[in-house]
Amino acid sequence: MRTFKSLSEQEILALAISLEEEDARIYADFAEGLRADFPAVAQQFAEIRAEEDGHRHRLLELYRQKFGEHIPLIRRQDVKGFVSRRPVWLVRPLGLTIVRKQAETMELETRRFYETAARRATDAGIRQLLGDLAEEERKHSHLAEALARAPEPREEKAARKRLFVLQVIQPGLAGLMDGSVSTLAPLFAAAVATKDNADTFRVGLAASVGAGISMAFAEALSDDGSLTGRGRPVTRGGVCGLMTALGGLGHSLPYLIPTFTPTNYELVAGLTVTLTSYKLATAIAMVIVLVELFVIAWIRHRFMDTPWSSALVQVIVGGILVFLAGILIGSS
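Now predict its structure.
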């Protein structure tokens, strides 16, 4: 690996051409990756790419005048002092914040390169061009800084919301629905059959953890997110699996109530109710189930634009059917 001080003027120009070509391609990837969700920012990166191409053409013209047609292969990774770049431009979907920070870092690095190279150049023509490009990169740096600090326009906020729904809300909602509804049958079947809190909790815990693992793998393996824009499979799978487990554990936790001596309560004259740990845990679990179903309906209404009536009917009807299935199986 070469040091920057060891480079000749010919090699400095060759490196500058390589840098401009690489930056232009990265900005083109940024523009392409952001075009669907952030068209305004994508257009700005497309304009910067066009300017970087212009810089490269000016460098090529001067290089031919000074050194001929052959350009030695020298890249940023061949010279000490350059920061290693993470290939964020290959990630789909692109994160706007990461792209803005990357652009700011790129322009700052390129500007410093031209300023240092201009100070070392002895040829007047090379020195002038490098100085001009340093000034133009300074303007790019200011633009990149402004992009990093700029508030999101309305279209970008809407796009960010869409990505949040795709990458977090949808897998989380799927997991919460599966955990809250599918575990009702085994949990209440065990509760009715055994009337024992400890055994019922073990069934609920096993059902919740098993469903969480299953849903995590199912969501992660459903697609890699490259075409659908749903984000990283591991993140989606983790969100889905966690929400599935939490949905099932929510109404299983009441069965941690320890067994106590049954107590008789006279509600009205001649009507006595016996309270046991099993009945208390089951009553609390049923209340928690209703809360979970309401939360699911709210999320569907809030993020999926589902009417309140439809959301409530769909979720509650499904929950009641699974609950009844568990009661019937447990009492058979």
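DSSP finds ten helices and two strands in the chain.
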